[in-house]
């Protein structure tokens, strides 16, 4: 059934608001993001944005999820392009780290650079991000290894997502080392008998 005009209009406002919010975040960080500026930039009232996102934090959370979906597609492609499970996970983690490093918006959103108030989206309020990454990666695991218990695949994928996010927030080691460490943890979790 086709969506109503109201639903299509609301979706368009949402997309435009997220695009404008991204521009403001990259240009001015968290402090540069004001709902009034977003509303003015897309020609709607501030109340319309409050109705859609509830708050500035809600707008930022929606933006994190939108951008996360875009790079999760790259992550899935990296996983699917490799037969060896360890190399697949190493490539997927490295793809994530490289994508964040070169995308100024993802860098602001996922590392909090210039946006300290966004840090909860990666810590205490990170559930939507972790769930999205976990579910995408678990589907890969179950396609590649259909004999796996779905709960085990989900747990392994969540471990990888949490460790990757942890590195983004506090990078202690070079990306190649981190990718290898996370891949090793996932593979050993899935197959405790491997060396």
From TrEMBL:
<dbReference type="InterPro" id="IPR050109">
    <property type="entry name" value="HTH-type_TetR-like_transc_reg"/>
</dbReference>
<protein>
    <submittedName>
        <fullName>TetR/AcrR family transcriptional regulator</fullName>
    </submittedName>
</protein>
<feature type="DNA-binding region" description="H-T-H motif">
    <location>
        <begin position="34"/>
        <end position="53"/>
    </location>
</feature>
<dbReference type="InterPro" id="IPR001647">
    <property type="entry name" value="HTH_TetR"/>
</dbReference>
<dbReference type="Pfam" id="PF18556">
    <property type="entry name" value="TetR_C_35"/>
</dbReference>
<dbReference type="Pfam" id="PF00440">
    <property type="entry name" value="TetR_N"/>
</dbReference>
<feature type="domain" description="HTH tetR-type">
    <location>
        <begin position="11"/>
        <end position="71"/>
    </location>
</feature>
<keyword id="KW-0238">DNA-binding</keyword>
<keyword id="KW-0805">Transcription regulation</keyword>
<keyword id="KW-0804">Transcription</keyword>
<dbReference type="InterPro" id="IPR009057">
    <property type="entry name" value="Homeodomain-like_sf"/>
</dbReference>
<dbReference type="InterPro" id="IPR040611">
    <property type="entry name" value="AlkX_C"/>
</dbReference>
């Amino acid at each position: 059934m086709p969506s109503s005009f109201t639903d299509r209009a609301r979706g368009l406002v949402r997309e435009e608001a997220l695009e404008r919010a991204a521009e403001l975040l990259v240009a001015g960080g968290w402090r540069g993001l004001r709902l009034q500026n977003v509303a003015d930039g897309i020609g709607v009232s501030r109340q319309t944005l409050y109705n859609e996102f509830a708050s500035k934090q809600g707008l930022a959370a929606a933006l994190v999820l939108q951008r996360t979906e875009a790079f999760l597609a790259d992550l899935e492609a990296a996983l699917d392009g490799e037969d060896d499970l360890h190399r697949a996970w190493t490539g997927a983690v490295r793809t994530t780290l490289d994508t964040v490093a070169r995308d100024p918006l993802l860098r602001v959103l996922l590392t909090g650079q210039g946006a300290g108030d966004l840090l909860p989206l990666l810590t205490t309020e990170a559930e939507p991000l972790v769930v999205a990454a976990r579910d995408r990666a678990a589907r890969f695991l179950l396609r590649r290894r259909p004999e796996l218990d779905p709960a085990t695949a989900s747990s392994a994928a969540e471990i990888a997502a949490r460790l990757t996010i942890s590195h983004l927030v506090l990078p202690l080691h070079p990306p190649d080392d981190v990718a290898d460490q996370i891949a090793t943890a996932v593979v050993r979790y899935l197959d405790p008998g491997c060396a």
